[in-house]
Design brief:
single chain; about 60 residues; mainly alpha; 4 helices; about 65% helix; about 0% strand
């Protein structure tokens, strides 16, 4: 299980990222599973939605480490 501290740290870092950095991190995510979104799809999402996707992926990954 991910600790509250880990969650808050990740959320804080991700909240500071701009659209380009969020998209780059989602496209370059390396974990137990692949995030297979097209650049066009990601371009149509809000910045908040991109943050949600990245945070969920990172927390899921940490939960399995």
């Amino acid at each position: 299980m991910v600790s509250r501290k880990d969650f808050e740290q990740a959320a804080n870092v991700i909240s500071q990222l701009d659209r380009d950095e969020l998209t780059s991190r989602i496209k370059g995510f390396h974990g137990r599973f692949k995030l297979d979104f097209t650049v066009a799809y990601l371009a149509n999402l809000s910045v908040d939605r991109l943050r949600h996707i990245l945070l969920a992926a990172e927390m899921t990954q940490k939960n399995h480490n």
